[in-house]
Amino acid sequence: MSEGAPRDLQFGSFTSDPPWIVERDQLQWSASLATIRSATLREVPDLVRPRHFPPGLRVFRVAWHIGLAMLGWLVVERRRSRRQLANGGDPDTADTLSKSGVSRRLRVAAERLGPTYIKLGQIISAGEGIFPMPLVDEFKKCRDQVPAEDFAVVRAVIEEDLARPLEHVFSSFDRSPLAAASIAQVHRATLRSGEEVVVKVQRQTVSTLVHEDIKVMAWVAPFLVGRIPIAALANPPALVELFAQTITEELDFRLEAENMLDIAESFARLGQRGYVVPRPHPELVTRRVLVMERLDGFLFDDVDAMRNANVDTEKVVRTGMIGFMEGCMLHGIFHGDLHGGNLFVMPDGRIALLDFGITGRMNAVERNAFLRLLVGGTMNDVKGQLRALRDLGALPPDTDLGDVIRELGLDKPVVDPTTLTQEELLVEIQKILKALLAMGARMPKILMLFVKNMVFLDAAIANLAPDLDIFEEIVNISTYFATHHGDEIASEVGVAPDEFSVDLDGIRASMGLTDGTEAFTYKELRERREVIRQRLSGHR
User: Fold this and answer.
1) Residue 523's pLDDT is what?
2) Residue 276: which H helix or E strand, with range?
3) Among candidates 413, 434, 427, which has minimal Cα distance to 535?
4) What pLDDT shows up at residue 429?
5) Which residue has the higher pLDDT, 7 or 98?
């Protein structure tokens, strides 16, 4: 740190012009957070445990809306798709009609059921590559359709949690929120001491409602297994468990504030100053209220504004990828909900992160497995990757990895998917899904959050740096890790530093590129994906 820099920059990646200094041992709200976090995790099994009887009256409202959705699908879309098949119609078109219909009806039901179900929809909407695409596409429509709480309710929550009138804390407070989400909404404000801040306020009854709804979801989910054509690996009971693990920690903003500081500290320890985390206020954090430093910058998709301000967008995406992966691989902690509304680019090119309610945390065993998974991917070590996935919980502990390799055809040359017909593509996908389900494959929370973030970063690269050469970037990132963390990584995964090498031929093959392609841009990758998507959608 340069002389005269704020002293909290020594432990956290913050701004250099602080509204206050964070001293971790003097935070009034941080007492007993380890106990609170542990208790929050322990309540999940009880929330999702099987119940013989409906858990409370809420189940009847949920059953009504989901039942109407399913009945409408059975009467309209499913019957229509069967009629098309009976008249000699295309099976894939009929299947698409059926899946699109049930997805749309479930999205409408979620919106009518309120914040918990909208939040579930938002998580699904960011899960391209994890959840079925008809479901992902449909739930994208409910991302920003949560009405704001009345200001009188917002005031009541703040005054109850801070134990004083709002005007005794803030000299100004915008009545209209900057954003209103399913769990909370965010307002601009100014403290009486003059600092400009952002105030996150939890919806008044959302905590009780979330707990009731998770119990209902867990009771309803088994009835949906095999009855709707969108389950795949994200089967309803497993999805509810993942959702419960994710959302329960979001209900205590003291845990979110700790997440902010832990991730800021991770970046600082890694020497990663390309990310900036807002400082939580040392005093004004409670279970339902979080006051934090206000940051400003460019929206993540505003490419023209960034370039006009001479921001190097390729550097932005490289920083985003490296910083995210460093936290995962070396410290086992990362922001778990990257999307355009949760980050922006500051005028100096650094990435400001917001909303730390969903944060990935790995224990030592999980982090080591995760590290082995990524290193194995770079070296094209198929069996090593499968072993890491098994250790992460994606496969049962007694899984025979040799059987997995044979069942999935991982010991055979990869076929370019763009050379397959629509029917051949569907057969391959169905074969893989059937095999994975038979093996007991599942999507652990950590892996789901990681894949979801990688999907976002992939889209960000295609938007901010479409001409970036994928192969060159893989080499650049691998070189960065080898240079900065090579000995530590090699020691943990049991590979000698001089044995580690990037297998570009294997990476090309995994993409179906078998022609010795030397350069491959994100623009070209997106074009290939579009060909595959159109074939799976029944278009020519």
Assistant:
1) 83
2) strand 275-276
3) 427
4) 65
5) 7
Q: Rounded to the nearest 5°, which phi and psi values hold at 170?
A: -120, 135
Q: How many CB atoms lie under 10 A from the CB of residue 459?
A: 17
- What distance in Å separates the CA atoms of residue 34 and residue 57, rounded to the nearest whole number? 34
* pLDDT number for residue 386: 92
pLDDT score of 521:
84
| Closest by Cα among 108, 109, 103 to 61 | 109
Cβ(538)–Cβ(511) below 8 Å:
no
Token pair recorded at residue 473? 């970037």
Q: Identify the pLDDT of residue 539.
A: 43
pLDDT bucket at 233, cuts 50 / 70 / 90 = very low
Segment 514-518 shows an average pLDDT of 69
- Give the count of alpha carbons within 13 A of 539, CB side only: 6
Write the pLDDT tens digit of every residue in 292-303: 999 999 998 899
Angle, vertex CA 173, rays to CA 21 and CA 197, nearest 5: 20
Q: Which of 429, 426, 394, 423 is nearest to 409 (CA)?
A: 429
Cβ neighbours of residue 272 under 8 Å, at least 6 residues apart?
13, 319, 322, 323, 326, 327
What's the pLDDT tens digit per position in 333-351? Answer: 999 988 888 899 999 999 9
Q: Give the start-to-end residue ranges of the domains of the chain.
A: 40-144+209-250, 364-536
How far apart CA 392 and CA 370 sit, in angstroms, is 7
For residue 187, what are its two tokens?
């307002």
pLDDT (average), residues 172-179: 94
Per-chain mean pLDDT for the chain: 86
Question: How far is it, in rounded angstroms, from Cα 327 to Cα 453?
Answer: 13
* DSSP element (H, E) containing 335: strand 333-335
The secondary structure element, H or E, covering residue 497 is none
Give, for 415, the enclosing helix (H) or strand (E): none
- Determine whether 227 is exposed, middle or buried from the number of CB atoms within 10 Å of its CB (0-12, 13-18, 19+): exposed
Rg (CA), the chain: 24
Q: How far is the C-alpha of 214 from the C-alpha of 220, rounded, in Å?
A: 10
Helices (H), 467-521: 470-493, 504-510
